[in-house]
Design goal:
The chain has 336 residues and is α+β, with helices and mostly antiparallel strands. It folds into 2 domains: 2-153 and 325-334, Aminopeptidase (3-Layer(aba) Sandwich), CATH 3.40.630; 160-305, Aminopeptidase, CATH 3.40.630. The chain has helices at residues 2-7, 16-19, 25-31, 38-41, 43-53, 101-109, 131-140, 162-168, 172-186, 200-216, 218-221, 231-245, 288-303, and strands at 12-14, 58-63, 68-76, 80-85, 96-97, 120-126, 144-148, 152-158, 190-195, 248-255, 258-268, 271-279, 307-312, 323-334. Strands 1, 2, 3, 4, 5, 6, 7, 8, 9, 10, 11, 12, 13 and 14 form a 14-stranded mixed sheet that branches.
Length: 336
């Protein structure tokens, strides 16, 4: 069926410039396909990474009306030419989107220069048991040794039942600590401000506020947060793109009109993807981070968001997110 479909549908090559907007073909396909981390499949994440971390690679986009592949190519010393996900550091997204994505990759490999010299291929974000994964294993075993790499593991939480439903899936100790933190903060005149930038100017203003908070946090003090390159430019570019898409979400905690904490993320296909948060070290004893999380959950529930994705598994995320997701990462090594 897949090959019959491909036989009557001529794939189209796209450019980064032609896809770099909110409702591009790539982003529309993300919306209409099941992905473990839909936000990180979108152009806002992928293209911002490319521009900041690896701008010298070649980009390859091949698609139909319901499927697309998005890959970067680079000649690695002592290895050879590799096709890899555009975001190739954390491997959060998936470069094969849609029902005929595996066939599109096979089509790309029949074009120059790959027809004469098969590249290594790195694939990420493939959902276990998915049709796309099964097709990759079936199609490419003829040409490649398929090596299963360490899977990626992330945490997420259902927002079913709104805030009360979310809290019902947390432990009694968790709920008690949240109530205690709220009471402790009640007399400190701390307010929470929701921020939805919808222009480049608003994005830049919001980002400068985030950087001011970050400099006062333990991340800023230890120089391991978004104040340090390349993270500084990566998240700035991403927030700009998110502002044009209208899917960025930032909450600030404020005391006497001074920002003391922030939480930053974005929305895709009914899911919220948390990206960064920080708070001033002077406020570390007041559980500002926990209360920012809860204010975010409250905002998301009001918007009808169904899932909160916290990204890569870390110890502190376990208490916030009851669900664990694993995705497959594959290395396709050309057969001799």
């Amino acid at each position: 069926m897949e090959y019959q479909y491909m036989a009557h549908t001529r794939p189209e090559h796209f450019t980064k410039e032609g896809l770099d907007y909110s409702h591009s073909v790539l982003n529309q396909i993300v919306v209409n396909t099941d992905q473990a981390d839909p936000f990180c499949c979108r152009t806002e994440w992928q293209f911002s990474f490319h521009e900041v971390f690896s701008p010298n690679r070649s980009l390859y986009f091949l698609g139909t009306h319901n499927s697309i592949i998005a890959l970067a190519g680079y000649e690695y010393p002592d290895i050879g030419y590799i096709l890899e996900p555009i975001e190739s550091n954390w491997l959060f997204g998936c470069p094969l989107l849609g029902p005929v994505a595996a066939a599109l990759l096979e089509t790309l490999l029949q074009e120059k220069p790959f027809y004469y010299a098969k590249p290594f291929i790195l694939l990420s974000g493939l959902m276990p048991g998915s049709a796309v994964l099964k097709k990759v294993l079936t199609i490419f075993k003829k040409y490649y040794e398929i090596v299963r790499l360490e899977p990626s593991v992330s945490r997420c939480a259902s927002l079913s039942g709104n805030v009360d439903g979310y809290l019902s899936r947390r432990s009694a100790n968790f709920r008690r600590n949240i109530r205690r933190a709220a009471v402790q903060l009640a007399d400190r005149d701390v307010l929470f401000e929701r921020c939805l930038p919808i222009s480049i100017e608003q994005a830049d203003e919001t980002y400068e506020r985030m950087l001011t908070v970050e400099k006062l946090s333990w991340k800023g003090i230890e120089q391991c947060g978004i104040t340090i390159q390349p993270s500084r430019d990566f998240y700035r570019l991403m927030l700009r793109r998110l502002s044009l898409s209208g899917i960025g979400r930032v909450i600030f905690a404020k005391n006497d009109d001074q920002d003391i904490g922030y939480m930053f993320g974005g929305i895709a296909t009914g899911h919220y993807r948390g990206l960064q948060f920080s708070y001033g070290e002077d406020w570390s004893s007041y559980s500002i981070g926990n209360l920012l999380q809860m204010e975010t959950v409250r905002w998301l529930c009001e918007e009808g968001i169904t899932r909160y994705d916290l990204g890569q598994t870390m110890d502190y995320k376990v208490r916030w997110a009851e669900l664990e997701l694993q995705t497959e990462n594959l290395l396709l090594r050309p057969l001799k």
